Amino acid sequence: MGYYDRLRGFLAIFLRGLFMGSADVMPGVSGGTIALITGIYERLVHAISKIRFGFIKPLITGDLVGARKSLREEVDFELFVPLLAGIACAILTLSKVILFFITTYVAFTYAFFSGLILASAYVVYQKIDGFSLKNLASGALGLIFAYLFVGLNPIQANHTLPVVFISGFVAICAMILPGISGAFLLLLLNQYEYMLGVLNRMAIVEIFTFLAGAAIGIMSFSRVLDYLLRNHEAVTMSFLVGLMIGTLRLPYNKIAMVDTTSIIISVVIGIIGFALVMILESRFDYIDY
């Protein structure tokens, strides 16, 4: 592979990271959904599940050559470096923007989220091979679960470091699962606005505590998800479609409270969100592993 092809591949994955990071700071939208519609989802889950920290033992014993070899075998650097760079850039730059829109233009912002979620559900549905009662039951289960989950009231949790750690653990699992928003889970745990504030003021202790919880969460959950996608793909995808449709309860509740004129504008904004996802899906190619 030449220099130009590598640079092009790096930029393509970096762009996916930007979109994923943007989704991860929006309650109601999952970064996993963006990974799925941009064709990188299965490679991402598989790459995370491959990391088993086998490089630590030779590193401790001073075998740097062995540690480097093990590290390159376990870690997909060509995926993780540009992807994480894109996610980090999006989160750091968009956290203030999203906080402004979600507090100032509530209905319009959630209308946009609705369009994104509905289109994402349609894209995932297209990836399901064949129709069966098992897939239908799985989708219905996902819908019911998400609908009831979204209706939960936020927990009045404090902002101590153990709670921040648990929040990172729980949120990251949702962030790689299409249909469940990690940011929405942070809302339920009463940590969303607090963590946005942590990012804006660059509170290092809280950020590293959150990232530690996220690292442990993603390493454990990715193995389960990788197994399901490899052995029960259709059923898993059907469940994810149900999850996405069920989470529409959240934006619907936000939009339903406004006047008729605002509802019309919200519908237009939702259509724009829907169209954006369809354009993204048509522009990005599937990246195999």
TrEMBL record:
Keywords: Membrane, Transmembrane, Transmembrane helix. The chain crosses the membrane at residues 79-102, 108-125, 137-157, 163-190, 202-222, 234-251, 263-280. It comes from the Archaea. This is DUF368 domain-containing protein. It comes from Methanothermobacter marburgensis (strain ATCC BAA-927 / DSM 2133 / JCM 14651 / NBRC 100331 / OCM 82 / Marburg) (Methanobacterium thermoautotrophicum). The lineage of its organism: Archaea, Methanobacteriati, Methanobacteriota, Methanomada group, Methanobacteria.
